[in-house]
Backbone:
């Protein structure tokens, strides 16, 4: 066996436990040796997921002082990404950081600065890029099948939005900024990737259409043990409870993006739709592609490269296999973690650059400012060129 990487986690919650399985799946090069979380109640379940005894810490700084830890996974709530990533980089560790890179431009700047000063890898886990349906769409575009991309439209239906985001910390602006940042960075990054360019101007509207605004000064906080499982019987959305009493984020968002190459794009996010999937369409100068189903359901890509003057059957349909029945985002999580580890161990070039994660935060943060100022256009100054 060659070099072995020792991994420590900051934040031992839901996502950390999923990532443990992806790190272990990579192979014997990986050993998970430590974890830090102020909530000692999570230690047992985390250690059980790892399957071997590890060092558990309530203070991550004690874990970071450990010379035996090479890679840190940051899987804490979003507003803590800045603090934990910078501490880990300064301690000389490589970092796998969960998306979003940060909740706003200021924090993203600070993280980027720390990454540039360190000689360690900072990898942001944009797992959506590794889904088969989006990779297939990207390959079709790269093959020239639809000519030059001029429009990318994404509609995200999120039936589980109330369970996942309106009962716990996700529901508060102070922890996430907005769900356009927290969740939308996935798709803004994907839009940039499919179009081959970054956003230079955004305009957005958002509203709290269904879950209602709580009292952000309420003495009461959310219940950390609340049932956030995605249950189909949690319906209709207005019947969901208990919601976070301090909730103040939008559940209905639309944003328009003008990219530097002139492509005009749009992203819509809805947290009370009855179904859960992403629908992308990309229109180029010689055709259009669209997915039906995504990584959690059987997906097909429709390709139109001939003209119809009414609705017309696609020129071809690409039928994609359902991988892992949608678990681990249809294998995307494994591939995302493997890409990070391949870069550390073998210096293999990744498909995503840190500037991609940074520019997605810039656009999502600017979009948030726009939707809170009645759609005012916000100019952005992304880091270029597009890789
Ligand atoms: N890429 C994806 O598909 C995906 C999916 C889910 C979550 N995520 C990301 O993972 C991150 C964590 O989300 P989650 O759903 O696991 O949340 P969670 O609430 O289940 O877990 C967060 C954990 O962080 C711990 N924590 C809080 N403060 C801490 C501190 N100061 N030091 C160390 N630990 C601390 C909490 O006690 C909790 O155990 C978020 O940034 C989220 O965006 C990504």
Residues:
């Amino acid at each position: 066996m060659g070099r072995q990487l020792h991994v420590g986690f900051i934040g031992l919650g839901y996502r950390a436990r999923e990532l443990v399985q992806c790190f272990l799946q990579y192979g014997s090069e990986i050993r998970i040796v430590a974890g830090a979380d102020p909530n000692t109640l999570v230690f047992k379940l985390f250690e059980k997921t790892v399957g071997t005894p590890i060092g558990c810490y309530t203070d991550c700084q004690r874990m970071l002082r450990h010379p035996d830890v090479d890679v840190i996974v940051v899987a804490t709530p979003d507003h803590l990404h800045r603090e934990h990533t910078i501490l880990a980089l300064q301690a000389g560790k490589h970092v796998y950081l969960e998306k979003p890179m940060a909740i706003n431009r200021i924090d993203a700047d600070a993280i980027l600065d720390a990454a540039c000063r360190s000689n360690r890898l900072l990898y942001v886990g944009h797992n959506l890029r590794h889904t088969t349906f989006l990779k297939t769409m990207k390959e079709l575009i790269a093959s020239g099948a639809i000519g030059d991309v001029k429009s990318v439209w994404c509609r995200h239906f999120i039936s589980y939005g109330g369970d996942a985001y309106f009962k716990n910390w996700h529901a508060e602006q102070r922890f996430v900024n907005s769900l356009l940042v927290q969740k939308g960075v996935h798709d803004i990054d994907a839009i940039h990737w499919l179009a081959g360019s970054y956003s230079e101007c955004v305009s957005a509207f958002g509203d709290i259409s269904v879950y209602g605004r709580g009292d952000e000064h309420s003495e009461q906080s959310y219940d950390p043990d609340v049932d956030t499982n995605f249950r189909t019987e949690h319906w209709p959305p207005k019947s969901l409870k208990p919601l976070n009493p301090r909730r103040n984020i939008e559940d209905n968002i639309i944003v328009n993006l003008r990219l530097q190459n002139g492509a005009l794009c749009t992203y819509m996010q809805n947290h009370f739709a009855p179904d859960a999937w992403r629908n992308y369409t990309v229109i180029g100068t010689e055709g259009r592609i669209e997915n039906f189903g995504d990584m959690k359901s059987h997906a097909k890509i429709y390709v139109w490269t001939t003209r119809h003057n009414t609705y017309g059957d696609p020129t071809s349909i690409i039928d994609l296999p359902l991988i892992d029945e949608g678990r681990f985002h249809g294998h995307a999580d494994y591939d995302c973690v493997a890409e990070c580890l391949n870069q550390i161990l073998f210096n293999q070039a990744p498909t995503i650059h840190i500037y991609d994660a940074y520019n997605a935060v810039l656009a999502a943060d600017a979009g948030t400012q726009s939707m809170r100022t009645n759609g005012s256009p916000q100019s952005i100054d992304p880091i270029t060129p597009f890789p």
Summary: The radius of gyration is 21 Å.
